Amino acid sequence: MTSICPTTGEELARVLSASPAELHEAVERSREAYTHFRNVPAPRRGEILRQIREALAAKREDLGALVSLEMGKIRTEGVGEVQEFVDICDYAVGLSRMMNGRVVASERPGHSILEVPNPLGVVAVLSAFNFPVAVYGWNLALSLAAGNATIWKPSPTTPLCSIAVTKIVSGVLENNGIPGAVASLVTGGKETGKALVESRDVELVSFTGSEHVGRSVGKAVAERFGKVILELGGNNASIVMPDADLSLAIPAVFFGAVGTAGQRCTSTRRLYLHRSISSEFLERLQKLYQSVNPGDPLVDGTLLGPLHSSAACGIYSNAIEHLRSTGANILTGGNKYGQAPFSRGYFVEPTIAIPSSPKPDSYIWQTETFAPILNVAVFDELEQAIEWNNNVPQGLSSSLWTRDLRNLGKWIGPAGSDTGIVNVNVGTSGAEIGAAFGGNKSTGWGRESGGDSWKQYVRWSACTINFSDEAPLAQGVNFKA
Ligand code: UN1
Q1: Which residues neighbour 450 within 8 Å (Cβ) at sequence distance 6 or greater?
Q2: How confident is the model at residue 340, as a pLDDT?
Q3: Are 388 and 368 in contact (CB under 8 A)?
Q4: DSSP summary character for residue 473
Q5: For ligand 1, is residue 264 a contact (CB within 6 Å)?
Q6: Does residue 431 have its Cβ closer than 6 Å to ligand 1?
Q7: For the sheet containing 111-119, what is the strand order?
Q8: What does the alpha-carbon distance between residue 144 and residue 392 come to, in Å, rounded to a whole number?
Q9: Are 464 and 107 in contact (CB under 8 A)?
Q10: Which of 429, 433, 448, 453 should be mutated for ligand 1, with most atoms under 8 A from CB?
Q11: ipTM surpassing 0.90, yes or no?
C-alpha cells in the first residue's frame, strides 16, 4: 500500500499489507496472547495502560504532526486526537479498578446470584482514515482494561499513523513482559478486513466507516453470532433558535462544518435557522467562510487542510454538481481551489448551500457527504426543525442553540432529537471521551469510549451460588420423585 500526503500528493511511504496467511497467524497469536493476558489482574492491566498513556503523551506533538502529514487535518486537531487517546487511557486506568459486576438477591434461601464480567477474547478494530489514532485508542484502552487481545486493521490510507501508535504501545508491552500480540496490527485493504470480520476467532468487531461497508460487516458478524460495534455515517444538524447567542453559535457552526475539512463523523452537515435570525446568521457565517484560506496543515494558523484523498474530492464535486443541477443556491464555495498552495493537494472550498427545498426527503438531505458542505434551511417552529432533524436515516449528533429552558426540555425529551449525541449550545462535533460516543438508526447503534461502553468488551455470566444444604428449584417448582 502507498501512503500519500494529501497536502502535496507526494508519496510518503510504501507499506506491506498482510497476506491471508499472515493475517491468520496474527489472529492465532492474538488468541494465545489473550489466554495469557486474561489472567493478569485488571489493576495491573491498568498500570500498563498508565504507562501507555505516558508514552503517548511524550510523543503527543510528533504523533499529532504525523496525523496532519498523513491524514491532512490541521496540527491542533492532530495533536487533539492524540490527546483523546491519552484521555481514554486515563479513563481506562480508573476503569481497571471499577469494572464491577453485581450481587443480585436470590429468591431461594441460602443462594446468591453474581453477575460476573470476564475478559472476552480477541477484539478486532477496523478504523477509518479521518481519526487514524483516536478511534483505535477508544477501543484499545477499554479492550486492554477488560483483559482482551486487540487486533487493529486501520484504514489502508493511514498506515503510518497505525505503525507509529503500535510501536509506542508495543514498547510498553515489551517493558512489562506482555506479549506484543495483546495489541497487534495488520495492514491491508478490503480482503484483510473481510477475513478479520468473518473470523470465528474474533469475539468482537468494532467497525468505524461508511454505512455501506458497515451493513456488510454487521451481517457477516451476525451470521457467525459474533458481537459488533458499528460507528457509521453521521448527517448532523444544528438548529438555531431566535433567542440563541449568535456570537457563540456562529463560530461553533463554522468549526462543526469546516473543521477537519468536514471529515468528522460528527461534522455539521445541516443547518436549520429560525426565520427571524437567518439573514444575519448567514451573513456573519459567510464572512467567517471567506476568511478561510487553504494551507499546509502543519503550519500554525492554518484552519483548512486538504481533503484526505482524490476520491474525497470526487465525492465533493459530485455533491456540488447535484446541488447545482437541483437548483440549490450556493452562497459561498462550490469549487476546488484553482490556486491551492500545493498544486497536487486535495483542497476544496468550504461550501454553504441552500437546497431548492427544505423537505428532508431528497437525496441532498438524506445523504452524508464526507466533505465541507453545509446545507441550510429556514424554519418557523422548533417542532418543524426537530422533525427535519430526525427525518434522515442517520442518527449520530445534533445541536440546538437556545437560551430558553422550554426548548431545551423539548429537544432532549421523548419528542426531541433522536440522535446518540444531543447537544445544547455546543456544536455537533468534538465530543469528550467521558460519555458514550455513537449514534442511533443507520449510524449503527454502537457506543464506544465512555459511559457504559466497556460492558461490551467483556463476557458476562450470571452465576447462581448455593451456600445452603438444600437444593430448591426456582419459581417453587416441585420435581421430587
Ligand atoms: C469520528 O469522526 O469518527 O466528537 C470521531 C468528535 C471526536 C470524534 C469523532 N471526538 O468529533
Answers
A1: 88, 91, 432, 433, 434, 435, 436, 437
A2: 66
A3: no
A4: P
A5: yes
A6: yes
A7: 102-105, 111-119, 458-466
A8: 36
A9: no
A10: 429
A11: yes
